[in-house]
Amino acid sequence: MKLKLYYDLMSQPSRALYILLKTSKCNFEPKCLDLRQGQHFTDEYQDINRFKKVPVIDHNGFILTESVAIIRYLASENVIPRMLYPENSKAQARVDEYLEWQHIGLRLHCAMFFRVKYLNPIITGKQPDPKLVQSYEKRMINAVEELDTLWLGRNQFVTGDSITVADLFAAVELEQPRMAGFEPAARYPNIAKWWPKVKQHFNPYYDEAHVILNKIVKKNMSKL
Fold first, then answer.
1. Residue 42 DSSP one-character state
2. N or C: which end of the chain has fewer CB within 10 A?
3. Alpha carbon separation from 185 to 102, 144, 190 (Å, rounded)
C-alpha cells in the first residue's frame, strides 16, 4: 500500500513534505486538497484528520498529522534519506532545535504578514489597515533577521555545513511573504547566498511545488 500525502501547495509545510518525498523518490500517492474551496472541512476529510488541516500522511493505515512529527516518522521508517534528518544524536538534535524554534520564531511571523497584507483583503474585499500591516511586517523582519544572522550567520546551512530538512522548512516559509511583496533574499546577504543552494539541492521538485506561488508573485509584481 502506498504512502498517501494529503496536502495543498499553498501550505508551507505541505510544500516541504511534497518536495521531500519527491526528492526521496518515494512512490507516494498525492492527495491534493483545495483549502480555498474548503475541502478540508468535509466529513470525509475530518475522518482522516480531526484537526481539519494539512499536511497529513496515511502510511498503510497509520495516519499522522503535524509536519515535524511526520518528518521524524518518515526518517525512522527510512522513507527519506538519513542525511536530511541525521541519525547522529547531536546532529539530529541541531535539526530538532531549529524545527522547534521555527514554529514561533519564523513561521508565525511570515505567515501572519502574508495573511494580513495579502490573504485577508482577498477574503474580505477590504484594504488592510496600514498600521496593522506595519506591525506584522516589523515582527516578520525581526524573525527573518534572526534566521539570517543567528542561524545562517554561523554556518553554510541552517544547522551546520550539510543540508537537512531544517533548510527546506526554512526556505518554504520564506516563500510565503513573497506573495505579499516582501523579498527576503534582496535584503539579507546570508539568505541570498544560502537559498539558491537549497533550491538546487531539491530541484526540480522545489520549483514544481512553487509554480502557483511564483505565478502569484509575478502577477503582483506586474501591478507595482
1. S
2. C
3. 18, 10, 8
> Residues 6 or more apart from 121 whose CB is under 8 A from it?
127, 128
Compute φ and ψ for 58, nearest 5 degrees: -125, 110
- What was the pLDDT predicted at 95? 98
Please write the tens of the pLDDT for every residue from 152-184: 999 999 999 999 999 999 999 999 999 999 999
Burial class of residue 197 (count of CB atoms within 10 Å of its CB; 0-12, 13-18, 19+): middle
The predicted-structure confidence for 17-47, as pLDDT tens digits, reads as follows 999 999 999 999 999 999 888 889 998 999 9
Report cis status (omega within 30 of 0) of the bond before 204. Answer: yes
Q: Can you tell me whether residue 7 is helix, strand or coil? A: strand
Scan for cell 475541502, then name that residue: 39
How would you classify the pairing of strands 56-59 and 3-7? antiparallel
**Contact of 109 with 142, CB cutoff 8 Å:** yes
Tens-place pLDDT, residues 103-151: 999 999 999 999 999 999 999 999 999 999 999 999 999 999 999 999 9
Instruction: Identify the pLDDT of residue 119.
Output: 94
205 and 18 Cβ atoms separated by less than 8 Å: yes
